[in-house]
């Protein structure tokens, strides 16, 4: 059922229009036929998945839906959990992460894992371990990162939906690059268990990339909710997200900003996409007013860098302790090595100051929602780059270009507020453009309702291909 979203796929199984074995066989065939050219899928479990089909999948809302899981921070039992890094390439996961277990309990069929930049540290998916993933819209271009493998797989129709995660834009950036819908949920919406990632978890969260808004809402219903003992949790929704996505959003006050103080210059095509989305919102009855950014990207970047950098050092050191050896020159990529060496020098006071600053940025951005229900920006400050622009073998190149691809997204990781990328038009090269909407903590229902309205008013398409 190539082209059908997850909701339609599950409905087709329930209605007897197809069966789970057929769906599984078709998805496996697509991955085997189209996957190598994109390099989106890095590990598969086809035989195990077909055994699960034979045994009977749980009769949940995702019954029979084939999906893939990002190879970063979320583990699939029996598959390697590499994070795109040579240092972590050996061994297999002994059990599913809680999120994967929830997908399975809902009836999803997990077929494998997707490519990611090393430890998620790049806005493009070009790890040395597996090589670059290619954008289905134009294979010379990046699919974004760090959920680029998942985005390329869904955009190419290998599976209807795929898991993704976001620590600075890593759901929204590839969603924009590949013409998909990508929602980063509120902080604490999805448990990270069993990984105790409290510091990086303040800025990073899990969800999915999808072709439709209703798929994102359904997957969030499956995934959301804390485990007892989680360090923090998002406010519980007033109703299931699938229901909230179907409600009319009402007349929203939308603040539009297309430029950032001391930030990268916004490319005209990206700014124009946001302005065109603002005009559509006005035609749909919303009130739109231009506003200014209540934050500076360099301040956000420094703060996020300390929180994620401290966790990076702890993660690498724990792996080396397990292996019983020091760090070798070829264990990690040059860009990762620069970050590791930089953040090894952090003090407890440095981390405390970053936590304090994150709260101050949150209050400053939160104050903007006194005047607006939603903030609208471009997702990216520049159109999707060609592969090689964000080359982790050249740390200076990544530093030079990184803010072009996270300047509008990373702030919502630091604040913990939900934000989504909605496909909106194409650049001069024919690649998709995305626009970002953000809401206060717990505001996913508002975003999903607005996204559904936009999806009906300006439907987005699929990339050309077989």
Topology (SSEs and partners):
Elements: H1 6-14, H2 20-38, E1 41-44, H3 46-55, E2 66-70, H4 98-105, E3 109-114, H5 148-155, E4 161-166, H6 172-178, E5 181-184, H7 198-201, E6 205-210, H8 213-223, H9 241-246, E7 253-256, H10 268-283, E8 287-290, H11 297-323, H12 334-343, H13 348-368, E9 374-378, H14 395-406, H15 411-415, E10 419-426, E11 432-438, H16 444-457
Parallel strand pairs: 2-3, 2-4, 7-8, 7-9
Antiparallel strand pairs: 1-3, 4-6, 5-6, 5-10, 9-11, 10-11
Helix pairs in contact: 2-3, 5-6, 8-16, 11-12, 11-13
What does this structure look like?
With 466 residues, the protein is of the alpha/beta class. It is 40% helix and 13% strand. It contains 16 helices and eleven strands. It has helices spanning 6-14, 20-38, 46-55, 98-105, 148-155, 172-178, 198-201, 213-223, 241-246, 268-283, 297-323, 334-343, 348-368, 395-406, 411-415, 444-457; strands at residues 41-44, 66-70, 109-114, 161-166, 181-184, 205-210, 253-256, 287-290, 374-378, 419-426, 432-438. A hairpin with a 5-residue loop joins strand 10 and strand 11. Helix 2 (20-38) runs antiparallel to helix 3. The model has no long low-confidence stretch (mean pLDDT 96).
């Amino acid at each position: 059922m190539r082209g059908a979203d997850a909701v339609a796929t599950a409905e087709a199984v329930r209605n007897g229009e197809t069966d789970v074995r057929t769906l599984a066989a078709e998805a496996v065939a697509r991955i085997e036929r189209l996957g190598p050219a994109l390099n989106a899928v890095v590990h598969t479990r086809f035989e195990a998945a077909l055994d699960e089909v034979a045994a009977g999948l749980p009769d949940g809302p995702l019954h029979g839906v084939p999906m893939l899981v990002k190879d970063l921070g979320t583990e699939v039992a029996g598959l390697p959990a590499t994070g795109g890094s040579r240092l972590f390439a050996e061994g297999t996961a002994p059990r599913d992460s809680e999120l994967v277990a929830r997908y399975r309990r809902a009836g999803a069929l997990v077929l494998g894992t997707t490519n990611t930049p090393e430890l998620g540290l790049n806005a493009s998916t070009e790890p040395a371990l597996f090589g670059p993933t290619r954008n289905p819209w134009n294979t010379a271009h990046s699919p974004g990162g760090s959920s680029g493998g998942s985005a390329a797989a869904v955009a190419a129709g290998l599976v209807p939906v795929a898991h993704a995660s976001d620590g600075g834009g890593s759901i929204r950036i590839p969603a924009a690059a590949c013409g998909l819908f990508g929602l980063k949920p509120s902080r604490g919406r999805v448990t990270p268990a069993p990984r105790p990632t409290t510091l990086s978890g303040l800025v990073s969260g899990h969800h999915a990339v999808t072709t439709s808004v209703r798929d994102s809402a359904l997957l969030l219903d499956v995934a959301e909710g804390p485990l007892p003992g989680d360090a923090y949790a998002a406010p519980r929704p007033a109703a299931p997200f699938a229901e909230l996505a179907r409600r009319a959003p009402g007349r929203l006050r939308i603040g539009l900003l297309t430029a950032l103080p001391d930030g990268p210059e916004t490319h005209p095509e990206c700014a124009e996409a946001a302005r065109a989305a603002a005009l559509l919102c006005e035609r749909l009855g919303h009130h739109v007013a231009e506003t200014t950014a209540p934050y500076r990207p360099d301040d956000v970047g420094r703060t996020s860098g300390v929180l994620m950098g401290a966790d990076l050092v702890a993660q690498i050191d724990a792996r080396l302790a397990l292996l019983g050896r020091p760090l070798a020159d070829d264990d990690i990529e040059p860009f990762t090595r620069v970050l590791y060496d930089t953040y090894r020098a952090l003090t407890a006071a440095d981390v405390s100051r970053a936590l304090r600053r994150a709260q101050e940025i949150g209050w400053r951005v939160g104050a903007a929602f006194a005047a607006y229900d939603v903030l609208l920006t471009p997702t990216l400050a520049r159109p999707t780059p060609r592969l090689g622009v964000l080359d982790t073998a050249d740390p200076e190149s990544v530093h030079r270009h990184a803010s072009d691809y996270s300047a509008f997204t990373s702030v919502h990781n630091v604040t913990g507020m939900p934000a989504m990328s909605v496909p909106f038009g194409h650049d001069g090269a024919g690649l998709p453009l995305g626009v970002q909407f953000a809401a206060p903590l717990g505001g996913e229902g508002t975003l999903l309702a607005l996204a559904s309205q936009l999806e009906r008013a300006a439907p987005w398409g699929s990339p050309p291909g077989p």
